[in-house]
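Hey, resending since the last one bounced:
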Amino acid sequence: MVVVNRIAGFAEEMAGWRRHIHMHPELCLQCHETAAFVVERLREFGVDHVETGVAESGVVAVIDCGEGPVTGLRADMDALPMQEKTGAVWASTVPGRMHACGHDGHTAMLLGAAKYLCETRGFRGKVVLLFQPAEETIGGGRIMVEQGVFDRYGVEEVYALHCDPFGALGEFRTRPGPIMAAADDYSVTVRGVGGHAAYPQECRDPMPVGFAIGQALQALPRGCDQLESLVVAVTHIQSGSATNIVPDQLVLGGTVRSFRADIRDWAERRMGEIVAGCAMAGGVEAVLDYQRNYPATVNHEAQTRFAVEVAREVSGRVMDDLPPEMGAEDFSYMLEARPGCFLFLGQGLGPSVHHPAFDFNDEAAVYGASFFARLIERRHRSG
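The structure tokens again:
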């Protein structure tokens, strides 16, 4: 295990950065205070270029050591709209907001790597540091790609880490190919004719049609290859106002998760057919609104092998065949634009991400920052 000694030497400084960010959480694209804090640190370190306002509040910084490879390293900065229940001294100071997914830690780890790389500059080429907002919502990673960041800075490959409360401290887990799912949302609006519940013959009740659609959608994965993963979940139903009234409308909705593009297409098509068929059978109108969100996060083979080699240098615990997960990540857009790898970094067992008691383990930061630093030193060898 070769955690970088210099990085280990400023572990407490990284913890201080992380806790400051944790205390001041920001949502979606509005990560302006976090971005200002990041920029202040980057300028202290001596990065060669800083661009602000990318995807509204994102930051792109460059450490330039001349001709050579160009590698992107990404961290997300946004928090979640949740009330914190950690009881930590550094708990959120903003009611109804907290860093419950470790983005504060991701940012601190990338800052730690930046500090080290600015000090040592023992590499050739350029490191492009990508601090993005809105991972939890509308896809700040997508917006950065659409705004031409990779083309503007000549990024050739891109890498990211995500903290893992299900892995041992310092354990890296990844896999080539799909590692996280595509995440889509849908809603179905069923419109009938309401009336008095005592006289159903005078109505066109949307309720039984809505129930039939919901049951059919939940069973949809049984119609695709059982060796492929597909989740279709009905997570909410809204209708009715009183026990003696047949409503004129029912709305149900949920999420669809998949890994393969053809399975995603199949699910959307079949859902439309189910909705139309149930509506026709029930004599009502039904409309499917299907919204495609983050694509599947798909690691590239060669870059994953390389990232695993680097992780093994940093930690004695590496899993390179992690089963794919049904969660989603907007780093997927960056991996569609450039080859790279997404890895999980264990922080020791604890409350899950998106739980009000979750907190990033500052002891994990030295592993993450060392991984980023060694990845650059190996890919950008100066000798």
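The longest strand covers residues 182-191.

Sorry for the duplicate.
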